[in-house]
Design the sequence.
């Protein structure tokens, strides 16, 4: 889930998560999991404020797959503006 910054602190994020909770509970799904970047302190505070808790630490290693698999540099690694992870994008 992601909420446009213009709509934050308006109750819309809380309402969105509430809708997802009800939808999942009606279908007997669970648990409800949200991934949040370690540098997204606002997101962490939001999830904790609505009753969620941190339960895992995830480690990531970004590998250069072009060298490993004999590929030319046809794909480029770019850091996401919204999260601390990386996306491989075709050029």
Sequence:
């Amino acid at each position: 889930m992601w909420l446009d910054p213009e709509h934050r602190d308006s109750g819309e994020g809380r309402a969105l998560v509430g809708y997802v909770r009800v939808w999942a509970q009606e279908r007997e799904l669970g648990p409800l999991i949200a991934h949040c970047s370690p540098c997204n302190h606002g997101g962490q505070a939001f999830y904790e404020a609505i009753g969620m808790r941190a339960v895992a630490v995830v480690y990531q290693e970004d590998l250069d797959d072009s060298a490993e698999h004999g590929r030319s540099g046809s794909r480029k690694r770019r850091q996401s503006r919204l999260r601390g992870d990386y996306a491989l994008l075709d050029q």
